[in-house]
Amino acid sequence: MSDIIQLLPDHVANQIAAGEVVQRPASVVKELLENAIDAKATRIQLLVKDAGKTLVQVIDNGFGMSVTDARLSFERHATSKIASAEDLFQLNTKGFRGEALASIAAIAHVEMKTKREADELGTLLKIEGSEVTAQEPIVTPVGTSIAVKNLFFNIPARRNFLKSDQVEMRHVIDEFQRVALAHPSITFTLHHNGNTLFNLPNANYRQRIVGVLGSKANEKLVPVNEETEIVKISGFVLKPEFAKKSRGEQFIFVNDRYIKNSYLNHAITAAFEGLLRERTHPGYFLFLEVDPKTIDINIHPTKTEIKFDNEHDLYAIIKSTVKHSLGQFQIAPILDFQR
Ligand code: ADP
Ligand code: MG
Known about the structure:
The protein has 339 residues and is of the alpha+beta class. The chain has nine helices and 15 strands. The chain is globular, with a radius of gyration of 22 Å.
């Protein structure tokens, strides 16, 4: 037999990559919101139909794209955010892989409208399963609107494996809340099937948390603040009496990015030692700022897991800071109702 290895055509490679990047409508929500933030938008609207199965649309007032960039943005490994490997160690954007739009366009019907401030006319681009079906100039406001319709239209197995609208919408709301909490200065709205679920004006961290959790949250919050050589910590923990059976209200952000890290979660829980009822989990919203050189974000496509150089030091600092904050607010009497 002759040589048998061949390079996969782009649309096949894109579909494979999409399998990693896009698990469900909520993954599309995350990628589009992050792109809007990277485009320096101050106002971001998320519109969703049928829990995102029929439509996920993000409209931003960011810097938009030129005709050429609009077209290029759907190519794999096409990004404006890094130019060299060194840039990976000093990231200050959410994206950098240049994979999201190519992946999404491989498995959905995408319609993009975009315009830069300097351009008279914007660009309309339609792509279905990696194939451009329309590209024309249009009148459209400065910024970008990307509508992702009929997710997994060409992968019935994936489509059939989506959960109920209720479950998928829960995931969509989770992603929306994480991004909205990390960026209080940006105005966000979320509409589902024509109903307004969230309308969050630009705010500070406390106001944003209240906007997301509801007005009752305000009196539950204990501020946490500390600055050391390796980390600046700000944010809030919920008073121990508001600890819950579920872990729903636990948020750690690193450099404005929501992350999952069970080791650091443990540091916070440990700070609550003796203050919690059995089998309850404390609520918290902690914003950590660290030198980008001391973390590695590039270990997973969705970037929710990151690696810290100095995890042990962080653990100790977080634990003692939270403990100190709880002490300052004289949370100790809560111990009474434990007995
Ligand atoms: P990445 O975000 O990793 O660069 P994406 O596939 O998400 O990759 O986007 C590709 C490129 O398209 C981005 O680098 C950016 O230049 C451009 N882009 C995507 N979304 C927007 C947007 N909402 N506004 C302006 N430019 C955008
Ligand atoms: Mg992106």
